[in-house]
Every structure is written in structure tokens, then in C-alpha cells.
Amino acid sequence: MNNFRRDSFILYAALVVAALLSTFISLETAGLHAADLPEPDRKAIFHPVYARNGMVVSEERYATEAGLQVLKEGGNAVDAAVTVGFVLAVTFPRAGNLGGGGFMLVRLAETGEVIAIDYREKAPLTVTADTFLDAEGNVDTEKSRHSVLSAGVPGTVAGLSLALEKYGTITLERAIRPALELAEKGFPVSDDLARSLEDARSRMEKEPGSMRVFFKEGGKSYAPGETQSRKTSRRL
Questions:
Q1: pLDDT recorded at residue 4
Q2: Which residues partner with 26 through β-bridges?
Q3: pLDDT in tens, 114-156
Q4: N or C: at which end does the chain have fewer Cβ atoms within 10 angstroms?
Q5: Which segments within the chain are labelled E, that is strand?
Q6: Sheet with 17-18, side-by-side order of all strands
Q7: Do 179 and 202 form a contact (C-beta atoms < 8 A)?
Q8: 117, 102 in Cβ contact below 8 A?
Q9: Using only C-alpha atoms, what is the Rg of the chain?
Q10: Separation between Cα atoms, residue 32 and residue 127, nearest integer Å
Q11: Mean pLDDT of all residues in 155-182
């Protein structure tokens, strides 16, 4: 769909872990007190949010809640970030994804060392300098952005799994569980998701499998508040 791979999983790219379209997870010290906080600008439109023990912020509610639950169970920031990433693949498909890639920066609390994990998708070996040119030798943006030729070799699952294995504390099964439950049981469609699916309709109509997953029977759109389930994806 539209911008599925739009810098796709530049998910988690700042501080402990940041995400495409702003998934951010950070841990604060347990001893934070009101007196330690800076004086807020009373005239500002936006105000910072403070947390005593931890914070999870993402573009989508269910992803945020899944990450927060991991922290409440004793997981660390990487555990929560990976969980958020998998949930976004279900609930925020225009950005969260399994078919793309990205980067992750992890700062180790014990040493202060910052580690970068590069799992951005790569071009297939068969791609050449002429792959995305038309018959006249000009760049064909339809080929380079929206055709099967533009699909890269995914890195998301491998990258998130590696991060969890090296720096997390929970199992991959636990990290994926919320995404699986939301996909199978369904979840209420948000205004944002309803709009993004409708915006992508013209391209998705070219692939019956996409229509079965993201639209109702007969190609009807999900309205905000209706429950969308990905059970149909098992038939693909």
C-alpha cells in the first residue's frame, strides 16, 4: 500500500529506540521527583510528558499498549521496542511492516555504549542500472516505487529478532504474541487506518490477496470503529 516501504523501518532510530513516524521508548530513573523537572513553558502549545519508571510512545494505540505491558512485566526497552514493531505491522501497515527493513540504535545502560543495528532491506541481486528505466531510458517512478520490481529483500524480522536475541530478555514468541492476537481476533479500525487504506485502494485493487486482507468482502472499505481481522491472510 501507499508508502509501505517509505523509509519503512527507520523504526527505532533515536535514543534508546525511536520509530518511523515516531515510535519512541525510553526508561527514566525511578527516583524522579517533581522538583527535578524543568519549569514548563505555560504558553507553549505542546508540553512534555514525564514518567517515573518508563515510557512508550508510538503512532498507534495498540502498539503502545503492547510495549507498555512488556515493560510492566519486567522487560527492557529493546523487548518493548521489538513488540511495538511487530504490532505496528498489523495495526499500522502504512508504516509498520514485515516486508521492509530499518535501523535500531541501542544504548547500553551499564556502559553507555551505543550500538547500531542495520537491517534495512536490500535490492535483489538481479536489479541492474536499467531496471527502473522506461523504453526511452528515462526513470519510471511507477516501476521504482509501486511495482513488484521495487520490492527489496526484507530485513525487518531478522533485525528485530537479532536485537531481541542480543539485547532483549523475552522470547521471540512473547514479542510476537500481541501482534498475532490482534491479527487473529481483530481490532477496531482507526480513522487514520481507514483513510490510508482508501488512499491505497487503486494500487491494492491490482492484487486480490491485498484486497482480501485489507478490505471487506466485495471490496468494501472498513469504516472507523469496525473490527478488522487478518484471518483471511492465512489463505494467501
A1: 37
A2: 55
A3: 999 999 999 999 999 999 999 999 999 999 988 888 889 999 9
A4: C
A5: 17-18, 24-26, 55-57, 103-107, 114-118, 187-188, 227-228
A6: 17-18, 24-26, 55-57
A7: no
A8: no
A9: 20
A10: 53
A11: 96
In degrees, rounded to 5, the angle at the alpha carbon of residue 121 between the alpha carbons of residues 190 and 10 is 50
Those residues whose C-beta lies under 8 Å from the C-beta of residue 96, and which sit 6 or more positions away, are 9, 11, 20, 60, 63, 85, 87, 88, 89, 90
Q: pLDDT, tens digit, for every residue of 18-60?
A: 333 233 333 333 345 566 667 777 788 887 777 878 889 999 9
For 46, 78, 84, 156, the CA distances from 117, given in Å and listed in that order, are 32, 12, 17, 11
Which residues share a beta bridge with 122? 153
Cell numbers at 34, concatenated:
517533581
Contacts of residue 192, Cβ cutoff 8 Å, sequence gap at least 6: none
